Amino acid sequence: MTAKRILLAGATGLTGEHLLDRILSEPLVECLHAPTRRPLAEHPRLVNPVGELRTLLPQLDDPVDTAFCCLGTTLKQAGSKENFRAIDLDLVVAFAERARALGARHLLAISSLGADPQSSFFYLQVKGELEAALQAQGWPQLTLARPSQLIGPRLENRPGERLVAPLSQLLPGKYHGIEASTLARALWRLALEEGEGARVAESDELRRLGK
Question: Is domain 5-209 in CATH 3.40.50.1000, yes or no?
Answer without folding.
Answer: no
